[in-house]
Amino acid sequence: MKRTNKIFLAALVVITILLFNSAYLNNKSTSVKEFNFSINPLVNYDFKQLRDTLYTDKDHYIEVNLLTQYATLYSRDGSEFHFPISSGTKRVEKGMETNTGLFAIQWKAKKQYSVQFDSTVMLNWMGFNNGIGFHALLGKSYYKYLGKKNVSHGCVRLSREDAEIVFEKVVKGTPVLVHKGNSAIKIAFTSEGESYNQYSYKETYKLLKERFQLIYDGDYLISFNENILVDEKNIYSSGLPIGNSDLLPSKQNLKPSYLWVDKNKSEEERLVEIFSGKEKSDFTLNPFLDSRN
Known about the structure:
- By secondary structure, this protein is an alpha/beta fold.
- It has 2 domains: about 40-55 and about 185-285, no CATH class; about 60-180, L,D-transpeptidase catalytic domain-like.
- It is about 25% helix and about 20% strand.
- The protein is built from 4 helices and 13 strands.
- The strands form 4 sheets. A 5-stranded mixed β-sheet has the order 4-3-2-10-5, covered by helices on one side.
- The chain is elongated and about 115 Å long.
């Protein structure tokens, strides 16, 4: 009888423990703990759109796309002025392709005469690449090619109306980015409170080559890339290289600290912090986070 009671008590204890554990596990499985973090979306971001950024303290810069035969005057106030152009071509006698590269306005003149082409009058001249520059012409016969076909001897032609607008805006040192849709750099305006360094032409050229290699190798975001200021003092008339965005990989290595813990910030704000290089006070270490995964 005593043996039976002991067996009964032991069985009762086992059943009680099992029921308790079952209730605990069921309760645990239905409870969800909210974690205050979100994984960096850059892990799945296509970094082919990433560009090395150089800065200007001027109020404007110009970007010329030789493929579209259009140019844009960007202003510090956020406004943009788009205008059709006609660039250089070898199809015409003594013609040359307009060079790609990063240039700066070297000098301006309301009226300039071409020494090479029978003293042709060039209105609102804005030179940026040795003897190459923006300008308008007398008459309107060339207007039909603007934004459609490159027919100049090397310069960038624009209408007289647009030339007047651009001429009044730009100054010596205004950056001019000329590309065929595959530039690996972009220009941005300086901001108060940020620090910028300016180097000689030779030093800037060398730094750009190094930064291009970092971005091609996927190591751009894990490297320190200081803010470089550019103008006519370190952009000679021969120009600076602009790299080749076709060589950019889809993925870039990310620092472990790029795991966000502040869910109150929008994804856009987080991306801005990444690309502006601001203090990442909202990040915490995660040694397993890598954009290659």
